[in-house]
Amino acid sequence: MERIFNKTALFLTGLILALTAPMVSMASTSTAGTPTHKHSSKSSRHSRHSSSATSTQQTLHHKHHATKSSHHHQHSHHHASHKDSADNAAYAAAIAQPAPAVSSDHSSDSGFFSKFSHFSAEKIVSLADATVHNLRYTHYKLGGNDFDPTRGVYRLDCSAYVDKLLEQANPQAYSTLAEWSRTYKPTTADYYAFFDRLPSDNWRYWHKIAQVSQLEAGDIMVFRYTHRRAGGHVMLVMGKPVPVSPNVFWVNVADSAASGHSDDTRPAHTSGVGIGKLLLQVDPDTQKINSYAWKAGANWKHNISFVMASPENHGDLS
Q1: CB-based contacts of 148, cutoff 8 Å, min separation 6
Q2: Residue 315: strand pairing partners
Q3: Residue-wise pLDDT tens digits, 152-164
Q4: C-alpha angle 70-141-300 in degrees, rounded to nearest 5
């Protein structure tokens, strides 16, 4: 009986051990797995932290550059605003002053023109000369139209400057141009189109000029760029071209521009109305202008097309 009991006890003990072993194994596995899971979680947090730090650094980097760019833009805008403010202040001061006394040789108003019964080259050239002689303030302004000879104030672009000179010196020629262009304020493009379509003979107070060597004081020349849709320049010729070589000429011009030419009345790094010299180069066969240099030492510009004409005191009105 005791033997049976012992065998039964041993059987129950083995059964208990057999039943509890998987639980221990599961508990052991779970305990061993927990650090691994925690380590994985820690690694994930570290990854997220690194990613967050990198993202933060990138954000700060972008913000730094954006702020730097913003500061640069603000500085440029501030510089431009300061320059505009200084220009406006100088302009306001100039027009607030009384008109200066004008010498008998350099009047800038209708009194000077009363000496001429009709248009002559001397008339328009003298007016251009007077704008420089009596100048108090000038600035090149695209679309500007401020032309005040009595105060010596000129804030305008190239076409507006030539418009004013031509309108006062030869109203008949100016009226023809304005009527043809259908505008009271012809632009550089209008001058080019009008000159380009002029007949060879005199027509309504205008005469077309074919070659640089034919230019004289009082003539007008204009060019446009051929490699872009817009842009060009119009100017008044102040004297006969001076040959430098058979194909290169110095031409003295009066204009309103963003910078001066060679031997210019405008100080360096200033804009507006002035008189100076530019270089023209012609084709040896056709004698037509094929390039220009704004001043001595400047690059030759080839993608251009020049046309020239002379305002006359009479013309075929047909």
Answers
A1: 95, 154
A2: none
A3: 999 999 999 999 9
A4: 90
